[in-house]
Design a protein that fits this description.
By secondary structure, the protein is mainly α. Helices cover 73% and strands 0% of the residues. Helix 1 packs parallel to helix 8, helix 2 crosses helix 3 and helix 3 packs antiparallel against helix 9.
């Protein structure tokens, strides 16, 4: 495994160490960063615990896809990719995804008599949110890209990225989001009319969060 830049030690990481690096991120800073977006989305939908868990699964799938592609890109392009992945690009992607998710919640949905209600296309916003929130560079992500670049191989870089992404998926969000989903459902259980207002307020919040991230990126 060659390092043409001479910036990194010539030590091949183990796959387990890459996984552990992802777990360390998923259990700490990543969960705190993702909570405002995913939590607002889950509360606004208010479909209960299982639906919230499914949305969380789509969110984490988006993260794994992003890290896999980033690892593959680093394996192909080398250390150059770490210079192109800037804070601005990540914030713009998060901002646009947040605005999209907010608009999805605000837009009128099918009535309860039309089955399934409020469900069409609902998996796309959390998938995009998860993908975009993986694009903001941090120290562990930079290390992942450096390790992938050292391999000089697309498949090896993709393997590192996928393992890192699976590690970040071991997150408290898997336990928190179902509780938030149950909370949203309970709020509207005896007052169904509140569901519409809850979705609107959550959508507005996501749009505001998205606009704030866009402002950071431009």
């Amino acid at each position: 495994m060659a390092d043409p830049t001479g910036l990194y030690p010539m030590v091949a990481p183990t796959l387990f160490s890459v996984l552990l690096m992802g777990i360390s991120v998923g259990l700490t800073s990543c969960a705190a960063t993702c909570l405002p977006f995913l939590g607002t989305w889950t509360l606004g939908r208010g479909h209960g615990g299982w639906s919230a868990l499914a949305d969380t699964g789509m969110f984490l799938t988006g993260k794994i896809i992003a890290y896999t592609l980033l690892g593959a890109g680093a394996g192909f392009l080398g250390i150059w990719i770490t210079d192109t992945l800037t804070d601005g690009l990540g914030h713009i992607a998060i901002g646009l995804s947040g605005i999209l998710a907010g608009i999805w919640l605000i837009m009128p949905k099918k009535t309860a008599s039309q089955c399934p209600p409020n469900n069409k296309g609902g998996s796309l916003p959390p998938l995009l949110l998860g993908f975009s929130m993986s694009l903001v560079p941090c120290a562990p992500l930079t290390s992942l890209l450096a390790l992938s670049a050292m391999t000089g191989e697309v498949m090896q870089g993709a393997e590192y990225g996928a393992l890192f992404g699976m590690g970040t998926s071991l997150t408290p969000l898997l336990f928190i989001m179902p509780l938030v989903g149950v909370m949203g459902k309970n709020i509207t259980f005896e007052r169904p009319w509140l569901g519409r207002w809850l979705a609107i307020l959550a959508g507005i919040t996501l749009v505001i969060l998205g606009l704030y991230r866009l402002n950071l990126g431009v």
